């Protein structure tokens, strides 16, 4: 049986809204429709085209490659509609940016503000999500640029090092170890300690270093982000070993940051598609970060690759 050849604008609008929002709730809010209307439109579009457009993953609807390709083919249609009944003023170039909380909540917020003050003709859409979602979002063309502390090895995505840091011990200023210029693994033996959760690769590396030195800190809590670890250290719960970037910029006046003598090294990366050219606004923002990131004693910039 031949597929129907007619077209439905509401179905295409539902597709684009769902790809942008990731959930039927978000898509419905964007279009002013009910969730059931969105679901019906997507179901009808899949039936009409014979394509599987979305897969459910961790509570979100992940677009398939077929959905991404169809959405690209629809770009000229929606660009034409924008020219017909779009706003009188030109639509600014939009940077679709995604980053995990450690980078997004403070560091990127201030950088976005300064970037837009210099470039008022641009627009930034920021999503705060996990590093795994950074990768998926770039692959699915839902975002142009990501920032993460995890090195990626996945087809279709490339990462460029942006910042490199050495590990630090963070503690209250009155802690005995705060009187030292650097802290060795053995110095943490029997010290109250705030640990990064075991799902992080750096936790395994730190555990190996401590075991080799027969150093056994007293773990008081485990957390998933360096900001949480530093804030618990600020409350006096214990010492934390973390990546100082970018948390140093927001806690150095309240806490002691001391070099942790170890081979642990952290890198921050720009994440982008390896199959699509980086938009002009994304290139401009990456350049802005390289130029305007404040210096600190525990991290340094990585020169851009030509």
Q: Percent of residues in beta strands?
A: 15-25%
Q: What is the fold named in CATH at topology level of the largest domain?
A: D-Maltodextrin-Binding Protein, domain 2
| CA-CA gap between termini | 53 Å
Query: Would you state the CATH class of the largest domain?
Result: Alpha Beta
The biggest sheet, with number of strands, parallel, antiparallel or mixed sense and barrel status, is: 6 strands, mixed
- From the alpha-carbon coordinates, what is the Rg to the nearest angstrom? 23 Å
Read across the widest sheet, the strand sequence of neighbours is 4-3-5-13-6-14
Instruction: Indicate the multimeric state.
Output: single chain
**Helical amount among residues, as a percent range?**
25-40%
Q: How many individual domains?
A: 3
What can be said about this structure in brief?
By secondary structure, the chain is an alpha/beta fold. The chain has helices at about 10-20, 25-30, 35-50, 65-85, 100-120, 130-140, 200-210, 225-235, 250, 280-290; strands at about 55, 60-65, 95-100, 120-130, 145-150, 155-165, 170, 180-185, 190-195, 220-225, 240, 255-260, 265-275, 300.
Task: Explain what you see.
This protein is α/β, with parallel strands linked by helices and 306 residues long. It folds into 3 domains: 9-85, Winged helix-like DNA-binding domain superfamily/Winged helix DNA-binding domain (Arc Repressor Mutant, subunit A, Orthogonal Bundle), CATH 1.10.10.10; 93-156 and 274-296, Periplasmic binding protein-like II (D-Maltodextrin-Binding Protein, domain 2), CATH 3.40.190.10; 168-263, D-Maltodextrin-Binding Protein, domain 2, CATH 3.40.190.10. The chain contains 10 helices and 14 strands.
């Amino acid at each position: 049986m031949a597929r129907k050849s007619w077209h439905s604008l509401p179905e295409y609008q539902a597709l684009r809204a769902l790809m942008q929002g990731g959930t039927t709730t978000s898509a419905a809010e964007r279009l002013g429709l009910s969730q059931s209307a969105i679901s019906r439109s997507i179901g009808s579009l899949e039936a009409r085209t014979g394509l599987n457009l979305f897969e459910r993953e961790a509570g979100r609807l992940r677009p398939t490659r077929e959905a991404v390709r169809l959405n690209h083919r629809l770009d000229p249609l929606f660009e034409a509609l924008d020219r017909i009944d779009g706003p009188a003023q030109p639509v600014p170039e939009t940077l679709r940016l995604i980053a995990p909380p450690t980078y997004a909540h403070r560091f990127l917020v201030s950088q976005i503000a300064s970037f837009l003050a210099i470039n008022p003709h641009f627009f930034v859409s920021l999503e705060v999500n996990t590093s795994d979602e950074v990768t998926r979002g770039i692959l699915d063309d839902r975002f142009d640029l990501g920032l993460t502390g995890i090195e990626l090895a996945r087809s279709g995505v490339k990462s460029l090092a942006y910042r490199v840091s050495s590990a630090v011990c963070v503690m209250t200023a009155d802690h005995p170890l705060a009187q030292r210029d650097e802290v060795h693994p053995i110095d943490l033996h029997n010290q109250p300690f705030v640990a990064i959760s075991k799902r992080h690769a750096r936790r395994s590396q730190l555990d190996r270093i401590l075991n080799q030195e027969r150093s056994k800190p007293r773990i008081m809590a485990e957390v998933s982000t360096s900001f949480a670890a530093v804030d618990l250290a600020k409350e006096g719960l214990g010492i934390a070993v973390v990546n100082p970037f970018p948390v140093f910029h927001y806690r150095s006046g309240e806490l002691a940051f001391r070099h942790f003598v170890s081979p642990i090294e952290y890198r921050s990366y720009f994440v982008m598609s390896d199959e699509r050219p980086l938009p002009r606004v994304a290139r401009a923002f990456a350049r802005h970060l390289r130029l305007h990131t404040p210096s600190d004693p525990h991290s340094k910039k990585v020169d851009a690759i030509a």
